Amino acid sequence: xxxxxxxxxxxxxxxxxxxxxxxxxxxxxxxxxxxxxxxxxxxxxxxxxxxxxxxxxxxxxxxxxxxxxxxxxxxxxxxxxxxxxxxxxxxxxxxxxxxxxxxxxxxxxxxxxxxxxxxxxxxxxxxxxxxxxxxxxxxxxxxxxxxxxxxxxxxxxxxxxxxxxxxxxxxxxxxxxxxxxxxxxxxxxxxxxxxxxxxxxxxxxxxxxxxxxxxxxxxxxxxxxxxxxxxxxxxxxxxxxxxxxxxxxxxxxxxxxxxxxxxxxxxxxxxxxxxxxxxxxxxxxxxxxxxxxxxxxxxxxxxxxxxxxxxxxxxxxxxxxxxxxxxxxxxxxxxxxxxxxxxxxxxxxxxxxxxxxxxxxxxxxxxx
Length: 368
What we know:
Layout: E1 10-17, E2 31-32, E3 57-63, E4 71-79, E5 92-100, H1 101-112, E6 149-151, E7 154-156, H2 162-167, H3 174-186, E8 197-203, H4 214-228, H5 242-249, H6 257-265, E9 274-276, H7 292-295, E10 306-312, E11 335-341, E12 352-359
Antiparallel strand pairs: 1-8, 1-9, 2-3, 2-8, 3-4, 4-5, 5-12, 6-7, 9-10, 10-11, 11-12
């Protein structure tokens, strides 16, 4: 979000289901699930799981332009819902894409001249970027997945001509062609899809005056304190001074002070599904790996450092419902922390991959 508002945390909330029959989201839409909507100048990308090779499901799309920047800017988070991959950092992919307003307008104009349905201009731009104060407004315009088969981040077109099929490949290529055909027939290339929801936003500093969710939050706090044998209300914020010492000495029954701080921080709004604070401090749900902050890899495009930008929260897990009703395991995580290029470098081309850290909920082990 805004450089001018650095340090201010914005809270993402579920704002109703995105009915594809009524609304047509674009890259300007903030949403959960559905298909990823890239800007008109960015090639569609369908990442695969680095662990099992399966297509990744689109989890969250965030429109997040930066202050004083001429670029539209998006973050897309993808994850593998497979039971053997869920909850592991390696099964997630974060893509950042940008485009100039002039480029987007020119691409939209070119597309509108084609006979196929074009991506329409949105009714309003709602964003996570600077000076934004609301999201979830309906946007118009989206194209389908497009043709072809995804392989390692690229799309391969499959010849469908009867003539080509009858002629067949040269003898030396017969084995390879047969293998490709068998692979195509035996594998589903469409990625799994989660039900789409709009995302709306509030400033975290405004939550103190909101009475609607306080009763529910206090109930959750009382239940947590009874279960863990620790008073979260007695903990200080841990921002400095004596509060840190008092916080460190106050332990939950399972001994996880980091988790206790996490619970206290989200207590005013337990239903939050996303926290956005570019350049701010992440809210860990458990102790991060040693030296994690210093060990975040440099940007693969410019070699510069990365900074924390956003994180997904536990309340999002219950919203991630598969549309194919396959019965496969859904995603499981405590929080997903996203780090992006500090300078938000960009050159025309495909989306750039950023870094994330997946942490599981340490309280889950208490119920196993």
